[in-house]
Amino acid sequence: MPAEESYPHVYFPYLQNASDLRSVVVLRTDRRLERVAPQLRAAVWDLDPDLPVPVVEKMQDRIGDTLRLRRFRTLLVGIFALAALILSLAGIYALMLYLVTGRFREIGIRMALGADTGHVLWTVSRQSLLLIGIGTVVGLTMAGIASRLLAALLFGISQFDVPTYVIVAVVFDTAALLGCLPPALRAARLDPMLVLREE
């Protein structure tokens, strides 16, 4: 397996290790497998017609078979990550909508006293940015802890790969900001007189 650590190998001539009935022959060629396979079988049967038909396969397919389970696990983790992104986006939207709805009276008073749309957007977004910042710090900390548990699934990448952490943080923060935008725009479009009458 590519993820396993390498260990020393010793090669013996076939006749010196004849007790081992299982043998593997590795052949490097630039010809297609369909053209080489019959010639390999014919060469084996020329030596001994009673030998079983050898399995001929590409090294790429053999390595791919060893990685099949690892790829399936990675696909599952990716699906769960996408589901987590969608759920977090929906949760952020619902939370911000709840917080903005609770501040309708305050926002209405601010707008009645002359606050413009930009001021209202900043007032609502400031709270969102604080929550996103706290969530990013907590998320990166938890990801660092969880990476030790998922180290067996990683191949060719460090468990503390900084570019990956940065990209994931940017994606989640962007998704969170997009989730905060509709409630903020809704608050900015409030009719202050209507809000004050309802109160």
Q: What keyword list fits this structure?
A:
199 residues; mainly alpha; 6 helices; 68% helix
Describe this structure as you would to a colleague:
The protein is mainly alpha-helical. The chain has a domain at 68-198. It contains six helices and no strands. Helix 2 (59-102) packs parallel to helix 5, helix 3 (104-112) crosses helix 6 (192-198) and helix 4 runs antiparallel to helix 5 (162-188). The chain is rod-shaped.
Short description:
The protein is built from 6 helices and no strands.
Number of alpha- plus pi-helical segments: 6
Q: Strand-residue fraction?
A: under 5%
Largest sheet: none
Mean pLDDT: 76
Helical content band: 55-70%
- Taken in chain order, the helices and strands follow as HHHHHH
List the helices and strands and how they pair.
Blueprint lengths: L32 H15 L11 H44 L1 H9 L4 H33 L12 H27 L3 H7 L1
